[in-house]
Structure formats: structure tokens, C-alpha cells
Amino acid sequence: MNSETKEFISTHLNADVHQLALQAGRFPLVDIALAIRQINGMQKIKNKVPLFYTTDEILYPAQLSLEQSSSQSTATYKSTLCEGNSLTDLTGGFGIDCCFMSAHFKHVSYVERQSELCELASHNFKVLGRNHIEIFNQDTETFLPEMQTVDWIFIDPARRATSGKKVVLLSDCEPDVSALSALLLEKAANVMIKLSPMMDISAALRDLPQTTEVHIVAVENECKEVLLILRKNIEKFLQVFTINFGKNDHQQLFRFDAHEESNATSKLSSEVGKYLYEPNAAVMKSGGFKLIGNYFGLSKLHDNTHLYTGNELLLEFPGRIFNVNKVWENSKSSLKQLTTEHPKANISTRNYPISVDELRKKLKIKDGGETYLFACTLANEEKVIIDCEKGKQN
User: How would you classify the pairing of strands 188-195 and 150-155?
Assistant: First the structure.
């Protein structure tokens, strides 16, 4: 990278990269393609991975690799789950996960089939001081049978079909980790598999019975990834961990025993108390709908309505908490009054016969405002709309 290109990048960090591409002729000494890739990369990574953004001389890949990479918060979380002498990352990519997990290992192998990503990783790891990471430009299926045994293997299979559509089954991923599971556990005592939040967890667990832990990670109430940890010797029931990273580094945690969840019974209520509790995206993905209510002493509105209620304010609840103002009946006159009082509101449906869009059209209520309306079914099968607002604790 020549000095003109470096100066161009620093001068145009906040510029529109599409507009810059149209002005290439104005800067004959600048490597515009490289500059645009760097500027685009830094714009994408600024909030996603602050460590990379604030480190001089980091080089960035094509946009797809950036989009598929982990954020700093999710990569850091993964790093807390594993430690030992040796780690092999079989699907290195841009190297964010490998970079953060390497902090807890003496020797790390980064394996990636794309030579360009290997070159970038080699450069970036040196810039970041991760000198104990060794680079291997190979594909997973070739490298795995020949590798030395390690303490941990990390693998993040590609989750798109050849048609470009996202997949939900392990057998549709590349590589197929269910087919490789025996070999993975032959080469490592512990295996961490990163999956898309779209994946069917129940199906994945059937395909990978060696799973001892499931970790579901959300950021600002958006589920980002599912992590499966496999071990050679399973000594206890499957443990499920959920974490939601909120603003200002606030974390919501909830863990449970999957066997205990399957045998639990929810306390149901046909009455709505002072507070309405909505689990965060990670808890919703986990399926821990019985134990979370029981753990916090809350009543569930219906077996299939994953909302909870109580008269005590429980600030540690992993989700959103609403102050209940009123419960509207599902009658014509009641809904007419509701529309009059709330011309604008945030609408959600839970175990309700029509969708949000259909209900909004029916009520003629605009989106937005401070009011939250939850249309749902109670334990006595009554259809209601719960009128509430966010508490200051949110």
C-alpha cells in the first residue's frame, strides 16, 4: 500500500464507498480497489469489532467474509468457554473467532481453504501480536484426518446452499459436521460448533448426541449464533445456556437442564398481573419456556403463549418487562375503544389467530409510540389484548 493510498483511506473513512468508486479517475496514484475495500471494512467493523478498528494496519477481506464473521462480543464469549494447550480452528475465515479464542491457548492452528484469507490472517495476527497462531491453507476434510490431536477444535460450517438459500439442517452445511463428528472427537477432547440462529436445534441434537452444552447468543435481543459443545464422555444431562448482550455491556443470563425442562410443568394464569414479562430472543430460541417462569415465580399466560405475568418487579428477568395498564377484551366495542385511545402503538401477537399485519389493519393503528399491545390467548382460551408500556428498567 503506497502513501497516497494510505492518505486517501484516512481522509475518506466516512465517505460513501459507491461514490468513491465513481471518482477513481481523479486519483491516479491511489489503488482505489484496495482503498475502497479498506474503507468499507473499517466502516463495517468499527462497532462490530472495535479491537480490529483501533489496530493500525489491519487488512480487510471482501464484504461477504465480513458479514459472516463474528462480532467482538460473541467472539469474546466463545473465548470464555474454552482453554488449554492447543486449539484448531478448522474454518478460519476472517479470523475473528480464532483471534479471540487464541488468548487462552499456547498453540493455535488456523485452517482456511481460501488462500487470500490465509494471507490476510497471517498479516493481521502478526499486527495483533497473535504470534502463536499457525496458518494452514487447506480445506477441513483434507486437514482433519492428518492433524495432531488437540484440546479443542472449533468449526463454523458454511450455512448456505448452492442456490444461495439459507439452510436449517446440519446435513446441508459445508462441511457436514454430523458426518464428521466421530473424527472430530477422535482428534479433540472438546469440539465447539458454531451454527446459525436459523438452525433447528432439536434436529442438530439428534444428529449430534455427543453434545453436552448448547449456548445461544443474542446481541440486543437479536439471536446471532448457536454454539454446540461436544465431548467424548458425556457425564450429565444436556445443559442449555442463554446470553443476551444489551447496551452498555449489560448481560442477561439464563441456564437450565434440558432434561429438567422437559419434565417441568408451568404455573398458568388467566389473569394478568401488574407486570408482563417477555423472554429475550436467546431464551425464546432455547425453548426453556417452563423453567424460566418457575425459576422467577411467574405465571405463564398459556402453555403456547410464551409471556409471563406477576405482581412483583423482577429486574433480573432475562427479557423485557412491561407495566400493564389494561387488558382489552376481544369484542367489537372494546376494540373500537382501544383504537380510539391508541391511534399509534407497537403491536405483537402471541398464540393469536391472526398476524400482526392483519391485526394492525383491522384496528387501523399506526406503528410506533410508547404503547405496547400484546394480542394473545390466556390459559382459559380467552383472546385478549394486553395494553402496557415499557418500565424504566428496560
Answer: parallel
Question: What whole-number distance in Å separates Cα of residue 156 and Cα of residue 173?
Answer: 9
Residue 203 cell numbers, joined = 434436529
* DSSP structure class, residue 318: S
* Cβ 288 vs Cβ 242: under 8 Å: yes
Name the residue among 123, 74, 82, 116 with its Cα closest to residue 101. 82
Using CA atoms, how far apart are residues 29 and 8, in angstroms rounded to an integer? 10
d(CA 354, CA 348): 11
Which residues fall within 8 angstroms of residue 199, CB to CB, at 6 or more apart? 159, 168, 169, 170, 226
Q: Torsion over CA of 125, 131, 137 and 139, rounded to 10 degrees? A: -90
C-alpha cell at 116: 487470500
Q: How far apart are CA 2 and CA 34, in angstroms?
A: 11
Distance of alpha carbon 80 from alpha carbon 103, whole angstroms:
10
Instruction: Give the C-alpha separation, 177 to 171, whole Å.
Output: 8
Nearest C-alpha neighbor of 234 from the set 215, 216, 209: 209
Calculated CA dihedral for residues 341, 347, 349, 352, nearest 10 degrees = 30
Bridging pattern class, strands 305-310 and 366-377: unpaired
Q: Is 155 helix (H, G, I), strand (E, B) or coil?
A: strand
d(CA 331, CA 335): 6
What pLDDT digit, counting tens, does each position of 119-168 carry? 999 999 999 999 999 999 999 999 999 999 999 999 999 876 555 566 67
Distance CA 229, CA 226 (A): 10
State pLDDT tens for residues 50-93: 999 999 899 999 877 788 889 999 999 999 999 999 999 999 99
